[in-house]
């Protein structure tokens, strides 16, 4: 009797949606690898001062005797033009990249989500205004706008972040709008309204839960885009001020010494690739987990 | 519901005009509220206050912002975008010189993108879960993962190491003594002049930057094509064809491909803005000397008239690309002609 009960419990557990999602996620090698990559990057960035071999190289250190050294056991990624350890600097550079992700997505995702929800549910002029604004913003080349904005103000990381954030919310608004619009015409929304639910309740308690999967997949994939975007900005010279290490500007610095000192370009580049790969794999894994199309 | 296809296109055009107006107001206001006086910057630090205020009056900087905007747009519509501080020439002349180079690069990239991504998408969908599918997934993943500057630099490194004399910067070999022609497109001009050597040199120079620029798009378009093919394969009319015994080859190439090229085309239009953005990076790495290089310089030097023009032209690129996409889609899909303009 007890055995049957246990078996039944097990079956029950197997059928729960959360367990099925976890099962799909944990059996998906890409998702697991992506999670591990992202976790390792975050941990490295957090613990950078303690785990890097030469944390002092983050500052304006000059050690000309050790300049342009190729990768070896002591300097895993070699050294740069003034003899600083590229591995240490790259790990610290990760901090800037991840900070950028938190800053940009932390602001633009909530804004985009709320606007998308409202546009899809409210309809009428509100809908036209928000979708119109979104369409206009989408027509702007993001990189060009970010360059223009950050340089017309001051070419700092803070301004670059503001510029990216100004443009980024549109993609989320557009996406959430589509989901919200299709959900808004469902019967249960009508039922909730008849039962006397206010617009806030309907937006955030009835419609928003339908968007969670879309938001989490999009946000994860966007993290990779933001990192790429930030690296591109600093590669073009619109990043943090030296000597603060930043992956994009490290690649730009190394480019002057191509092709002889290739590691000065490829090693920081590989770190960017590592993180963006992680977020992409994780995003794809989440998409499979939620069983979404495309 | 609008039944008339021309009305739909007109509505779409109206949207685009609106986009341009909002874009121009934004960049105009942005360029005018920045710290720093354009008149002072134009004259340099040695100018007297009287000279500066005289130039301010001449440039119309004393007038209210809306008046300045309207007069700027009025002149812009007549092809006068002001003088560039950097080149000391009319911005329009600079654009006429640099835009064709970028058009050539972007067109080449788009052609490469579709030539690789559509067949790859079709094959990965057809041979689902076989090795070619995994190759396709890998290409898509690399395409969206790798920073375009890193990919561009890696191409240069590979070319320098294994193909010794392959050109890795510039648009053509200056030793050939070719100065350009009427269109500004190096490939077309060289053929018009009957210079096959120049054509080959230009093609060689174009190859690497075009491949580098197409990489990000290849990944996305492969992915979209694959999922569109798989989705449409399950449609009723396709299953009907299959049950009538129509060969798979015919189904894929005559029916599915047409239907499945709509999604990638739409994405292409939407992604055009980031393609232009990437051109800034690629042109810098390959010293391409196009509109994007010009724009980057203008932004770095705070050349306000040029920056405004660059942003407007980037927006125009996006709009033209999307118009072409709309027209292509309405040719491919007759249903679109009857639908309301999106």
Automatic annotation (TrEMBL), chain A:
It is found in: Cell membrane. Pfam families: BPD_transp_1, OppC_N. Keywords: Cell membrane, Membrane, Peptide transport, Protein transport, Transmembrane, Transmembrane helix, Transport. The keyword Transport applies. Residues 94-283 form the ABC transmembrane type-1 domain. Belongs to the binding-protein-dependent transport system permease family. CDD domains: TM_PBP2. It comes from the Bacteria. The lineage of its organism: Bacteria, Pseudomonadati, Pseudomonadota, Alphaproteobacteria, Rhodobacterales. It comes from Pseudooceanicola albus. The chain crosses the membrane at residues 30-51, 96-122, 129-150, 156-177, 223-241, 261-282. This is ABC transporter permease subunit. One of its GO terms (biological process) is peptide transport. PROSITE patterns: ABC_TM1.
From TrEMBL, chain B:
GO terms for molecular function: dipeptide transmembrane transporter activity. One of its GO terms (cellular component) is plasma membrane. Gene3D superfamilies: MetI-like. Keywords: Cell membrane, Membrane, Transmembrane, Transmembrane helix, Transport. Residues 99-329 form the ABC transmembrane type-1 domain. The chain crosses the membrane at residues 6-31, 105-127, 139-163, 206-225, 262-286, 306-332. InterPro entries: BPD_transp_1_N, MetI-like, MetI-like_sf. It is a multi-pass membrane protein. It is found in: Cell membrane. Belongs to the binding-protein-dependent transport system permease family. This is ABC transporter permease subunit.
